[in-house]
Amino acid sequence: MIASMTGFAAITRPIAGGTLTFEIKSVNSRFLDLVFRFPDELRELEMPLRELLAKQLSRGKVECRAGWSINTAETNETLDANRLQALQRLAHEVQSVFTESRGLSTADVLRWPGVVQTAALDWPALLPQYQTMAAEAIQGLKEARTREGSRLAELIQERTAAMRVLVAKAEPLIPAAQQAFADKARAKLIEVIGSADDERIRQELTLYAVRTDVAEELGRLKVHLDEVDRVVSANGQAGKRLDFLMQELNREANTLGSKSVSAEVSGIAMELKLLIEQIREQVQNIE
């Protein structure tokens, strides 16, 4: 079944004193565009993930985020005495120059970088956990994209079925409209000159029939609709193929409208174009 380019997955893992997180999401893109939002401690993840994603996905803008949260209730925090002394010395120097400046508050001191020390995470030990989380998230993303693709396939097939009904409705209208035109032309000639038996008139009627004959266009519409249904039901990449088929369907619908011999046929051509545009909007989401 076809897959969408839109999806999201998130994985969390509890660790001593906090939680590890990994998120991945994807949206539409003509090509495979990978973006990594990793802290410096996790940069080693980027290259293997880039290779894995290139094997698993073919299109879409994919963004990966990795991070962690610390549970302060479980984390032993201490103050760095050296930092405190250095901060006090700097504060005194500032006040010796700006005598009216206020002193540092407790909140100012605690916010100063490096004053509050927390136990460092063991990144070499955590990297394998992140790699496992990333693989699970990628699988979750693929499953989400497949579910979305299944819904898109249903929408597309509903519209191709509606288009088949319109094509079947248009087929008998063309000969009837051509015959009505010929009968009207003959009646007019008989009224004016008393006869419709004229070689030039027969030629004109023949040319009119050729100009308004849309059997070929209707046939190609059926063929393209068959191909759309086949591509939607098959596995693998389908977005670019379907986009091309939408262009071909639109071309045939335009020709049908330009050759229209009745208001009813013109209306059918417009309805076909509307359905094609609705499918085209969905196709933009397909991998």
Identify the notable features of this structure and list them briefly.
287 residues; 4-stranded mixed β-sheet; two-stranded antiparallel sheet; elongated
How would you portray this structure in words?
The structure is a single chain. The protein has 287 residues and is an alpha+beta fold. The protein is built from nine helices and six strands. It has helices spanning 46-56, 81-97, 106-111, 123-170, 173-193, 199-211, 215-233, 239-258, 263-283; strands at residues 7-15, 18-27, 32-37, 60-70, 77-79, 116-118. The strands form two sheets. A four-stranded mixed β-sheet has the order 1-2-4-3, covered by helices on one side. Helix 1 (46-56) links the parallel strand 3 and strand 4. Helix 7 (215-233) packs antiparallel against helix 8 (239-258). The mean pLDDT is 83.
Shape: elongated
Distance between the termini: 11 Å
Helical content (DSSP H or I, runs of 4+): 55-70%
Widest sheet: strand order? 1-2-4-3
Number of strands: 6
Give the ordered list of helices and strands: EEEHEEHHEHHHHHH
Alpha carbon gyration radius:
35 Å
State the low-pLDDT regions, or none: none
Biggest β-sheet, characterized?
A: 4 strands, mixed
Helical stretch tally? 9
Strand content: 5-15%
Structural class assignment:
alpha+beta
Q: Give the mean pLDDT.
A: 83
